[in-house]
Amino acid sequence: MFRKILVPIDGSTEALAAAKYSRKIAEKFGSSVTLLHIIQHSAYIMSGAHAVPSSVIESLDERGKEVLEQASEIFQDFDGYVTTRIEYGHPGIKITEISKENNYSLIIMGRRGISDVAKLLIGSVSNYVLHYAACPTLIIRDSD
Predict the structure, then answer these.
(1) N or C: which terminus of the chain has fewer CB atoms within 10 Å of its end residue's CB?
(2) What is the pLDDT of residue 29?
(3) Phi, psi of 7 (to 5 degrees)
(4) CB atoms within 10 A of CB 135
(5) Cα-based distances in Å from 49 to 42, 43, 46, 52, 61
(6) Strand ranges (DSSP E) for 72-122?
(7) What is the pLDDT of residue 102?
(8) Domain 4-140 classified CATH 3.40.50.620?
(9) Which is nearest to 40 in space by CA: 106, 76, 94, 4?
């Protein structure tokens, strides 16, 4: 039923809860899982990115790797197939594009992310994905 699951990870407790939930579903359906971290920073989006110090870009990349490593620990003894991926751009747009281009059958994500703006009723990225994803999207409410 859910052959491929995409799990956006931003380092928030809600995203880690989504990763835990995705493992349960993947075990039940024999699904593969992709943990996706998206770096949204003007250094990657604007044409003048060369003006941003390389140390800033390296720091963002390193943080992305740390976030994915933390989420990967949830799948430590998982018998299925798990991959990680880092992308750059607007999270909502990238999630929906990647899910469509790679024929994901399910997106599982946290309700809110780590930004202050996302502390509203439902995060702006979650809301965007719910409206524009081509596949079913499961929003995990909290870490319980």
Answers:
(1) C
(2) 96
(3) -125, 100
(4) 17
(5) 7, 4, 6, 6, 14
(6) 82-88, 106-110
(7) 97
(8) yes
(9) 94
